[in-house]
Amino acid sequence: MSPRALAARVLAARVLAASLVAALLLWCGPAAAQGFDMAKGGGDTQIQVYADNGIEWVQGANRVIARGNAKAIRGTMTVTADTLTAYYRQGPSGNEIWRIDADGHVTISNPNDTATGDQATYDLDKAIFVLHGQPARLVTPTASFSADDSLEYWELQHMAVLRGHGVAIQKDKTLEADVLTAHFKDKTDTGKTGASKTGAGKTGAGKTGPSRNAAPLPVASAPTPVAAPPAGGRAVPGGGHSGGMDLERADAYGHVALTTAQERVTGDRGDYNMETGIATVSGSVKITRQGNELDGGYAHVDLNTGISKLFGGAPGGGGDQRARGVFVPEHKDAARQQPVFHGSVPQGKAETAPAAGGSGAGGSGAGSP
Asked: Is residue 2 part of a domain?
């Protein structure tokens, strides 16, 4: 055997041995699987680590570094990158992992959902990963998401937070904003989920997750147990990923734009309920459709019927705002279309939108069928 071939066999043996050591090293507790669940693991207690160019075990720093097409696998979850660094500590059952850093060509995936970017930190104590990229992306069977700054995924809340021109696309509908929060349910779960609005869910616009330039997360003095799903949450015993994640609700903050095949609605704050097909946009609202423009303070958009309603203010708001409209007649020559009517609700008489559960505009809101 030539020296070169012998060296290759020795390197392969070392990589395999290191992989087996890492597989025994990285230990976590079992739990049910759903969505992205590296922290919970779907019942598997070990994270197996592989790499083409070897694995370095830095005992003094309590970390394992895998280089070259590095891969960490737990249950149906896989994290791949050019380099993976796993941080571990002493736990009740021996060494346990609490964090994974991924650098270069990062992919976090299960059989149905995939997130990609340039760099990621997966905090297994908090069950959160933060992904950076240009942009960072998340693709599910029914929608796609992207963010220029960061994309966070909160396992326990089944929620993604997109910061820096967040974009959500579902069929012919696009929702954009400075910050987007997307709440998911598993497609195998037919029950109502009532996604939690506490913690990160309610404060999606705040910087709740680690920032791009944040210092490495400190090693906890004791393991932080992975909590049970919040009230109304969805634990799926022996679960799985047969259907992937399904968008249930999206909230938008700052420079909001909702675009459909028929119109574009812009404003300061928005939300979209997938189950009802209803989107609302508030603030300085403008609806544009085929050259017609409506301006107001609150828009109610029914994506099932294509009917949009505009009001002077949001439910519970003041009635001194005005809804305005500029309408353009149909013309064979689009370049010759000119506004022929300007309308507005008289000052002090603008009606506000009905409270939740109301019957709609009652015929008094400006509408664009």
From this structure: no
pLDDT per residue as tens digits for the range 202-213 = 333 333 333 333
Best CA proximity match to 146, nearest among 174, 172, 188, 119: 174
Number of separate domains in the chain: 1
Q: Is residue 210 part of a domain?
A: no
Residues 115-127 have a mean pLDDT of 96
Each residue's pLDDT tens digit, 129-179: 999 999 999 999 999 999 999 999 999 999 999 999 999 999 899 999 999
For residue 319, CA distances in Å to 45, 90, 342, 358 come to 59, 62, 21, 17
- Domain membership flag for residue 243: no
Give the whole-angstrom CA distance, residue 121 versus residue 123: 6
**Residue 63 scores a pLDDT above 90:** yes
Within a domain: 295:
yes
Tokens 């409209």 belong to 325
Q: Closest by alpha carbon to 158, among 205, 196, 190?
A: 196
Q: Residue 123 in contact with residue 217, Cβ under 8 Å?
A: yes
Exposed, middle or buried by CB within 10 Å (0-12, 13-18, 19+), for 77? buried
Q: What is the pLDDT of residue 78?
A: 94
Q: What is the DSSP letter of 60?
A: G
Residue with tokens 């003041």: 318
Q: Is the bond leading into 354 cis (omega within 30 degrees of zero)?
A: no
Structural domain including 302 reads: 260-368
Model pTM?
0.69
Helix, strand, or coil (residue 244)? coil
Residue whose token pair is 């009230």: 231
Looking at this protein, which amino acid is placed at residue 269?
R
- State the CB neighbour count (10 A cutoff) for residue 203: 13
146/151 Cα distance (integer angstroms):
7
Q: What is the DSSP letter of 172?
A: T
Chain position carrying tokens 């020296």: 3
Question: Distance (Å, rounded) from C-alpha 44 to C-alpha 78?
Answer: 13
* pLDDT tens readout for residues 79-107: 999 999 999 998 887 888 899 999 999 99
CATH, residue 302: 2.60.450
